[in-house]
Amino acid sequence: MNPVEERRRVASRPLLQTFLASLDKPVGMSETLELAKDLVSRASVTPKDAGCQKLMRERLEAIGFCSESLAFGEVSNFWARRGDRSPLLVFAGHTDVVPPGPLEQWHSDPFTPDIRDGMLYGRGAADMKGSLAAMITACEGFVAAHPDHNGSIGFLITSDEEGPSVDGTVKVVDHLVNRGEHIDLCLVGEPSSSERAGDVIKNGRRGSLNGNLRVHGKQGHVAYPHLAANPVHLAAPALAELISVKWDQGNEHFPPTSFQISNLQAGTGAENIIPDDLNVMFNLRYSTELTEQKIRDRIHAILDSHQLDYTLEWRLSGEPFLTPEGELVDAAREAIREIIHIDTTLSTSGGTSDGRFIAPTGAQVLELGPINATIHQINECVAVTALDELSGIYRRILEKLLT
Fold first, then answer.
1. How far apart are CA 129 and CA 387, in angstroms?
2. Of 21, 68, 232, 275, which is most buried with the most CB atoms under 10 A?
3. Catalytic pick among 114, 161, 190, 354
4. Is it the case that residue 327 has pLDDT exceeding 50?
C-alpha cells in the first residue's frame, strides 16, 4: 500500500480527510490560490453572494465548524463557529464586490480569474476574496495540526459590506449579542497593506458622520433679486466657515478631523432663475477627540449664527474605534515578522470597514489583508505570493492565540 493510500485508510474524521486530500495535489499548487480563483469566478456584485458563502461553509463544516445562514432582507450572511470556549477569535469579511465598471477596459473578464505576471486579476481579488481564501486555508491547516485547540474560532461573513451595510455585519452582531455570544478577538480581511501584504495593519478607524443639508430660499428671476432669496448666496458664508473650522488636532493614533463637501445641487438648469433650495451633502471623518453629538452641535451653531432657514438630516456610518497595542496587535506583529520577515506599521487611515460594528462590543479588532492599490479599480488584482503569505500569517496568529 502506497503512503497516500495508507493515510486515507487511517483517516477517520472529516477534518483529517479534508487535510489529507490536499496532500494529493501536485507540488506547487496552492490551495489558497485555487480557492481565491473559485471565489472570484462568482459574480457576487453587492448584495448578491453567488454561492460564495455556500462554498466557504462547506469547507468550514468539513473541519468541524457549525454554521448557520443569517439572511436579513436581500442580504446573505453566515456565522460559523468551532468550539465553545473563550477566547473567541473571529475572521470577518464580505463576499460581495463592487460592480466591475466598463468591461471593455478590463484586460480580462472581471469574473474569469486570470493569472498574469504573478498577479491574480478579477473583481474582488484584493477586496476581499483573496483574504477569505487565506482565512479558510489557514483554519484548515491549523485545525489539522491542532484539532483540540484552545478557545474557539468563528467566521462572520456578509454580502452587504459594499452596499448600504444595514442588513449585514451589524445585524449579525446584534443577533450574536442577543443570544450571549461575545467576540473577543477579530481579524477583518480588508486590504490594509501599501507595498506588500502585511506591511500595514489597521488597528482602528476614524468615525464617519454624514449630513444632508437643505438651505431654503425663494425662487425668482435673476433680474429681480430683491424679490427672491438666493440660497446659494445665503449659505456661502456658512459653508466657508465650516470648511475653515479646525475641528481638532488629532492625536497619536488619528489625524485631525476632516470636513468635506461631497455634493452641491441647486437650480433648475436655467440661466435666469434664482434657485429655491440648495442641497449640500457633506461628510466628517473624525477622531476620538470628538463625539458625534459635539460635531452636530457645532455645525448647528454655525448654521444658526448665519440665520439660515434650513433642514439637516444626519446619518452616522460609524463611531471611531481603536485597538491599542496588546494581545491581538502583538500576535499579528510577531506573525508577520516570522512569516514574511518585516516589521508592520499600525494605521487608522482610510475609510470605514465592518470592524466598526464589531469593535463597540468590546472586541479587539484588526484589519489585515493584501495591498489596497487596485481595489474598486479596473483590473483589480492581488499578488499570488501574497495569498499564501496571508494564509501563513493568519495561521500563525491562530497558533499564538489558541494554542
1. 10
2. 275
3. 161
4. yes
Please identify which of the residues 96, 160, 190, 399 carries the catalytic annotation. 96
Helix (H, G, I), strand (E, B) or coil at 59: helix
User: What are the φ and ψ backbone dihedral angles of 67, each rounded to 5 degrees?
Assistant: -125, 155
Report d(CA 141, CA 331) in Å as an integer: 18
Which are the contacts of 41, defined by CB distance < 8 A and separation ≥ 6? 111, 112, 113, 122
- Cα torsion 55, 60, 61, 65 to 10°: value is -150
- Annotated catalytic residue 241: no
Pairing assessment for the beta strands 220-221 and 273-274 based on DSSP bridges: antiparallel
Report d(CA 283, CA 292) in Å as an integer: 12
Kindly report, residue by residue over 271-315, the tens digit of the pLDDT: 999 999 999 999 999 999 999 999 999 999 999 999 999 999 999
Q: Are 380 and 235 in contact (CB under 8 A)?
A: no
Question: What are the grid coordinates assigned to 189, written together?
Answer: 480581511
**What is the C-alpha to C-alpha distance for residues 273 and 56, in angstroms, rounded to an integer?**
57
pTM of the model: 0.85
Cβ atoms < 10 Å from Cβ of 14: 12
Do the bridges between strand 364-367 and strand 185-188 make them parallel or antiparallel, or are there none, so unpaired? parallel
Residue 93 has pLDDT above 50, yes or no: yes
Query: 279 has which bridge partners?
Result: 214, 265
Distance between CA 153 and CA 82 in Å, rounded?
Answer: 5
pLDDT, tens digit, for every residue of 3-55? 334 433 433 444 444 444 444 444 445 999 999 999 999 999 999 999 999 99
What would the grid cell of residue 326 be?
496588546
The answer to whether residues 342 and 199 touch, using CB atoms and an 8 Å cutoff, is yes
Cβ partners under 8 Å of residue 113, min gap 6 = 36, 37, 40, 41, 120, 121, 122, 125
Amino acid at site 60: L
d(CA 80, CA 75): 17
Cα–Cα distance list, 223 to 219, 266, 352 (Å):
12, 18, 47
Contact present, 49 and 162 (Cβ < 8 Å)? no
> Is 96 known to be catalytic?
yes
* Distance (Å) of CA 292 to CA 54, 104, 295, 319, 358: 38, 43, 5, 8, 18
Q: Answer whether the bond into residue 47 is a cis peptide, omega within 30°.
A: yes
Q: What are phi and psi of 9, to 5 degrees?
A: -65, -40
